[in-house]
Design brief:
The protein is built from 7 helices and 6 strands, in the order E-H-H-H-E-H-H-E-H-E-H-E-E. With 125 residues, it is an alpha/beta fold.
Length: 125
């Protein structure tokens, strides 16, 4: 079973683009999967949520989605979020992120990603 690791910027898509990321992922996946995220990503969203503004609202929605969808948290030790994602992700993972640089590095390691294309739909690549 694949694990789909949701990055913070990916969890803000529903607010910014009015896209149901969970429905779209369901359409993309042909095999069973489990959605996960990192404890550091939750911390990042909590920090953003306190700032207010559009990014704060988007972060609050991301946190709410993690709770509502009962997304499993992976505990991590130190390091930057992107570095932790790269360290944890292997062939059993698909990383859902809109960070182009992170996607490029993951692709170089043979790890698939899911990302937003043309502000309209998700792509598995």
């Amino acid at each position: 079973m694949k694990k789909i690791l949701l990055d913070a910027n990916f969890l803000t898509i529903p607010y910014y683009f009015r896209i149901d990321i969970f429905e779209e992922i369901g359409k993309l996946m042909e095999e069973k999967y489990e959605m996960v995220t990192l404890d550091k990503i939750v911390e990042e969203l909590e920090r953003l949520a306190k700032k207010g503004g559009k990014s704060g609202v988007a972060a609050k929605i991301g946190l709410e989605l993690i709770r509502k969808k009962k997304i499993k948290l992976i505990k991590t030790e130190g390091g930057r979020t992107d570095e932790l994602i790269e360290k944890i992700a292997n062939e059993d993972f698909i990383v859902a992120t809109n960070d182009a640089e992170l996607r490029r590095r993951l692709k170089g390691k043979g790890i698939k990603t899911i990302y937003l294309r043309a502000k309209k739909h998700l792509i598995l690549g």
